[in-house]
Specification:
Shape: extended
Strand order of the largest sheet: 19-20-18-17-22-25-26
Distance between the termini: 100 Å
Number of helices: 27
Structural class: alpha/beta
Number of strands: 26
Oligomer: single chain
Radius of gyration: 43 Å
Largest sheet: 7 strands, mixed
Mean pLDDT: 84
């Protein structure tokens, strides 16, 4: 309990704790602290000084200060330059803050003295701990280098445990945190634990420092010895003519003389070769330097290949290697024609081929390289997460190597190859950096003439490289990167295109791959069409090629077993080789039904049809949506329902109908996730059909986004959707009016036989869809 409570000015100390019985001076600069010191000097000359918990706090409050500090008597105040005041104090007793007093000019608090320390040791225990403490003090004195040995002797000679603890905290180099903890200790055992923890920690630190010093000394001595031995070996090898380092350096200088490179590069390589001569062959740095010089010498600094400017030849190669893709071929040939006329390699657009898997994006790039006579370099970016993969590692690291761009140039052997960035949409990013950010400089024709690889450390001219990128989806490509590329869409193949590709390319390729001759296997057109329709479902032709390969393997087995000399696969025999059908086309319904409408959807493997079903039943006005429906599709359904409620009077729907009935919307194939706004008009039509009990035309399909006011908004993936409708036997397709320009670009092969009706509002949709008896 406090003996006496005093009202004292308070000074908050930064990184300083003052112990009773000491005379200390410290500098203050804060206005509150100066006012507190001057107030104390003019009254009782007593102050309460207490340490801050965080020295960085410039304007401390009650919560920023420790509760226990020291009551001191001010002996002297000295004003110094820069508005500093030096305070000389004599510490009298330990004190504790009871409460702060509101004082505008300085910190002030009620403080009571709590200077009594409880000795909670027995006589025997105190003597035992005194001996342990004395031994720790002596060990500390032996381990520490910067402490006076006489001080250690005086401290160790103390016979009273309290006095020895106090001498340790004052005489040895303890920080303010340790002193503050000592100040707050209320018993001898607490003080003893604080001092022993400090001494033990310092003894261990000094031991570790000594071990490190000895290891460093041994290593230096060893390096000096190895240096002398290496110098002796160097002289011996020179006498015997076996100096490998010198011969390597001479070889590098000879290669440098033949190198066609800018002067800046040659100067750098020559400097590195001179440095290589001075490194001992056995040193680890020698290998690093050798690899670096070899890399610089192998780079195609000024080596350029001559392009083939024959556009007819380019068209012939593209037509030979790819069936269809007319828009893509046309755009590529336009691009190449501009390069021929401008006679410049750089500053042209960078092409990004975007489309589903298996549509020939990578092979198009390879054909362009062949058509132009350029070296072809493919860089797979799928899963790349480290920026160093693009820019390289700094050569100071163990195992450092150039980035993929520099390595690709080195492999190509020319500074103007065709470089394909495959799967650019699959780039990742983590704590090692963002590769897509590093590609910004590479794909910017204004900057890439001075591209710097971290390993090469010299500017690389990428302006003459023809960059082509491929991607399945532009959504995952960062916007700044996407802005640097010109997109060319590679759309899904139609069934007819797949049939031609299979006959002209895939069958012959698989026949050769499986050791057959052309006359040994024949697949009829009917069998091929069935194979495409019932055994594959994709936008490209990869799975189709696998199935053709499977047919070739089964035919090879029949021929090898001696059952036949040739195999003819017809439509009827296809199931004998490949088993039951894997996919069936969901054909249009034969009869018009209430609450069932056929929608059109785009998937990553092409178009598909969705049969949307709606049931209306007595209930409480709930709307249920099932079939793995995403958030966007749910919102479209709610928008459609709101539109129906807004026109309920027109269709004579009771005003309380929606409060007394539940509406259930279901899209079959519930395991397949579905999302997007393009089924908006389809769900709205199905709901209205179920509500007013009017059937919908079974041979009609539709696609379009709906608004609350019944407007029909445009959608994407139209080609694939129209193709899916045709395969499903749909006769009429409702398409948003704003998609009319997209319809004009779809070939007649796909549109043929379909009645395409463009609609701009739900009134037009309902007029075409609902069938009134």
């Amino acid at each position: 309990m406090p003996d006496k409570v005093m009202e004292l000015p308070v000074i908050a100390l930064r990184g300083l704790a003052i112990l009773p019985g000491t005379t200390v001076h410290f500098d203050i600069s804060r206005k509150l602290s100066i006012n507190a010191a001057e107030t104390a000097m003019m009254s009782k000359q007593k102050l309460f000084v207490v340490a801050q918990r965080d020295p960085s706090v410039s304007d401390p409050g009650m919560e920023d200060l420790y509760s226990i500090g020291t009551i001191v008597r001010v002996k002297q105040l000295v004003k110094l330059p820069n508005k500093l005041v030096r305070v000389l104090v004599e510490a009298e007793a330990r004190g504790e803050i009871n409460d702060f007093i509101d004082e505008p000019n300085y910190l002030c608090a009620e403080v009571y003295s709590c200077d009594d320390i409880v000795n909670d040791y027995s006589v025997e225990e105190a003597e035992a701990r005194l001996r342990v403490l004395r031994e720790a003090v002596q060990n500390y004195g032996n381990a520490a280098e910067n402490i006076n040995k006489e001080t250690v002797r005086i401290v160790a000679a103390e016979e009273n445990i309290l006095e020895m603890l106090y001498q340790v905290i004052l005489s040895f180099q303890t920080d303010y945190v340790c002193k503050q903890a000592f100040l707050e200790a209320r018993t001898v055992s607490e003080q003893y634990d604080i001092i022993m923890e400090f001494l033990t920690k310092e003894i261990e630190i000094n031991k570790i420092k000594e071990e490190i010093r000895m290891k460093v000394k041994e290593r230096v001595d060893k390096n000096q010895r190895e240096y002398i031995l290496r110098e002796q070996m160097k002289v011996i090898k020179e006498e015997l003519g076996e100096d490998d380092a010198v011969s390597d350096a001479d070889r590098f200088m000879e290669e440098l003389g033949k190198l066609d490179a800018p002067d800046e590069v040659k100067e750098k390589i020559e400097k590195e070769i001179k440095r290589f001569r001075t490194i001992a062959p056995a040193a680890a740095e020698s290998t690093v330097e050798r690899n670096y010089i070899e890399t610089l010498l192998e780079m195609p600094w000024n080596k350029v290949s001559v392009d083939n400017e024959d556009i007819d030849n380019a068209k012939m190669i593209l037509d030979r290697d790819h069936y269809g893709l007319e828009k893509v071929k046309e755009r590529v040939l336009e691009f190449l024609s501009v390069r021929v006329l401008t006679k410049t390699e750089g500053n042209g657009p960078i092409i990004c081929l975007v489309g589903p898997p298996g549509t020939g994006k990578t092979s198009i790039a390879k054909s362009v390289a062949q058509a132009l006579g350029k070296e072809y370099v493919r860089i797979a970016l799928g899963g790349v997460r480290d920026e160093a993969e693009i820019r390289g590692h700094r050569k100071t690291y163990i195992g450092a190597m150039p980035g993929r761009i520099a390595t690709g140039l080195k492999q190509a052997g020319t500074k103007n190859p065709l470089m394909l960035f495959d799967e650019i949409d699959k780039l990742g990013a983590d704590y090692k950096g963002d590769p897509s950010s590093a590609l910004l400089e590479v794909l910017d024709s204004e900057q890439n003439c001075k591209f710097r690889d971290n390993y090469i450390e010299l500017p690389l001219d990428l302006s003459q490289v023809l960059f082509i990128a491929t991607a399945n989806n532009t959504q995952t490509i960062p916007k700044p990167l996407l802005d640097r590329m010109e997109l060319i869409e590679v759309t899904s193949y139609t069934e007819n295109e797949k049939l031609h590709i299979a006959k002209e390319h895939l069958v012959s390729k698989q026949i050769k791959k499986n050791g057959l001759k052309p006359e040994m296997l024949r697949i009829t057109d009917g069998a091929m069409a069935k194979l495409i329709r019932n055994y594959t479902r994709e936008a490209g032709v990869r799975n189709l090629e696998r199935k053709i390969g499977e047919l070739c393997r089964k035919a090879a087995r029949e021929i090898v077993c001696g059952n036949t000399l040739d195999v003819i696969i017809t439509e009827g025999k296809l199931e004998n080789y490949l088993g039951k059908k894997l996919f069936t086309v969901d054909l249009a319904n034969e009869i018009n039904e209430v609450g069932i409408v056929r929608g059109l959807a785009w998937t990553s493997v092409g178009g598909d049809t969705l049969q949307i079903e709606v049931n209306v039943m007595p209930g409480k006005g709930e709307v249920m949506l099932t079939g793995s429906i995403g958030d966007v599709m749910k919102e479209s359904a709610k928008a459609g329902l709101s539109y129906i409620r807004s026109i309920s009077d027109k269709y004579r729907i009771d005003s309380d109908f929606f409060e007394k009935h539940d509406i259930h919307i279901h899209i079959p194939e519930g395991a397949v996730p579905k999302d997007g706004p393009s089924a908006g008009i389809t769900m709205a039509t199905a709901m209205l059909s179920a509500i007013i009990n009017v059937p919908v035309n079974a041979k009609l399909a539709m696609t379009g986004e709906i608004t609350l006011r019944g407007r029909v908004l445009p959608i994407g993936g139209l080609k694939e959707k129209i193709l899916a409708a045709k395969i499903a036997g749909i006769e009429t397709v409702l398409v948003p009016e704003k998609n009319r320009p997209d319809m004009d670009e779809i070939s007649d092969e796909i549109k043929g036989g379909l009645n395409i009706i463009h609609v701009s509002s739900m009134e037009e949709v309902l007029k075409e869809a609902l069938v009134r008896e």
